[in-house]
Each structure stands twice: as C-alpha cells, then as structure tokens.
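seq as requested:
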Amino acid sequence: MINTTIRQNWTVSEVDQLFAMPFMDLLFQAQSIHRANFPLNEVQVSTLLSIKTGACPEDCKYCPQSARYDTGLEKEQLMEVAKLIKAAKEAKATGSTRFCMGAAWKNPKQRDMPYLLEMIKEVKSLGLESCMTLGMLDSGQAEQLSQAGLDYYNHNLDTSPEYYDKIITTRNYQDRLDTLENVRNAGMKVCSGGIVGLGEAGSDRSGLLVQLANMPKQPESVPINKLVKVKGTPLDSVEDLDDFDFIRTIAVARILMPQSHVRLSAGREDMSEQTQALCFMAGANSIFYGCKLLTTANPDENSDMRLFKKLGINKEAINQSPFEVEQRVDAAIVRFSEKGELFYDATSKA
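struct tokens:
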C-alpha cells in the first residue's frame, strides 16, 4: 500500500536516500504515488509568454535576460494588452488550459499594475487559468493581483539555500520565501520550483526539493527546469546534467509532493522522446506548450501531440464552476479586438 500522506518535515538526508534508490524502484514508487493522486495518463498543458523581455537588473547566472550579460537579447517593453489577448486566444486554440505571463523584472512598479491587472482579466475572460511571474511582490501587489483574478503566481526558489549565492547575489533566499508567503496570504496558488544542472551537487537538488515540500502548504505547481545554456551567461559552459539525474529529480519531487503538478519546463527541447516518457513515468504531469519559453526554445505543439499520441496521454481539462462559466461568458461580451503582429524572435538583433 502506497503512503500518499503529505509530509512537511523532510530532511535532506532522507531525500538523498531517495535519490540513491535503484532507478527502476524509484520510478515505480513515484508512479504509484502519482496514480494514487491524479487521473491516469493526463498532462496539464500551459503556454508561457514573455510580456516584457530583457534588461533585468538581477544577476542570475543562468539568465539571458539579465542586463549584466551580453547574450544578444534585445530588450522589449511591456507588451500591449491587445497583443497579449491574441496570444492567449492562440494558446487556447492549440490546447493550453493555463496561460502564463512572464516579465523580466526584479519587481513590478506601481505604474505597471493597471496593465497587469487588465491582462489577468482578459485571460480569465477566455476561460483560461492565469499565472504570472513578475519577480518579487510586496503584500499590496499580491493582493491586487489576487483581486484581479490571478490563479497562480510563479516564483522559483531556483536551487538550495546553500548553493543559492553561487548563482544569484542581487536578492537573497528569504526574499523569495517572503514573496511566496505574500502570494499565499493573498489567496493565490503557488507555482514554485527550480533549475537543475547549474553545477550544483546532488545534495543541493535534495535541498531544493526539501524547501518546496516543507512549505506550510506545498506548491500546487512545481516546475523543474533543466538548465538551457545560453552563450554569454556565466553558466554557458557548465557540465551537462545527466538525463538520469534529471529524471530522478522529477521522481523525487513527485514522492515528496504527491498532490502537486510537477512540470517539465525549460530544457525539454533537448530531451529525447524516451527521456520525456520516463519523466512522465516518474510523475511529471504538466508541460509548457509552444515554440518558446520566454527566450529559450521549446518543442512545438505538433511534436508534443505526436508524443502524447504515442504514449496514450490526454490533455487535462479545467474544472470550472457554473459561476465561473457565467463570468467567462459575460466577460467575453465586452472583449475588445486586437491588431498587429505578436510573435517575435526575442534573441534576434535584427
């Protein structure tokens, strides 16, 4: 009998032991826990759009959007609401159920809030779940986003507390935890995970997952990113993480957080179908869908659907109450039309 009780008192040594299990035993345990908590062969599909690209003042060593590194990335201003609506419609038409909006900020300014709130309302009017990642939030900003209807807020911990200052120095670990607390207190759901392949030790991967699992309430969504090395960033030549270590990270995340959606995020473009299949076996049940994740490549929708067909996987649907459906219909009546081109190559200098 698989024990699926949620624990929030994991230790790093316990999690190290999980990572050390024989690979097949680890996957079997993770898949058994997954089956006890989620419908079989369903994957939640999200689209991620950059609504403000580049010129970020942070020094995250993995990020091409940092103003401190010369990666050839052209900065972009905050996207117009009409263009965002077009993107959201296209995402819904291709099968996404959650629309995630990312801005390269340390934190949003108050002058940006009216535009962000309008974006949330428009995305919700289409019947999509909404998520934003805007950097750090104070309690007032979190409350504004929540009142506008934002479902999820993404703020990753990135790595373990012990390895954190090797990757980022412009904000500390507690800053990230404070933002997540503000999100929770405002009534939003938490999307928080990290990046592996940063040159960290195995114990740092354990430490990251312990931090996430031991939160007062575990994140509803846990994105696990595999580093995408971008020329010009300090980590552009770090040693590649072995695929088996990545799959193990997915499996351990599933064991520690039985009821969270565990998402395959950045790095999927370079994964074989077989690696992705093992990740789903290990308990991953969410992906980002579409040709780009902010500024890095991602498998296109057609290749994902071909893989889903091979594996017998279905896309997860949104569960909406009758009140939410009525709200969506009412909002659709007052939607305004959009003009202009939306998609651009955020890495191009042209």
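The chain has a mean pLDDT of 81.
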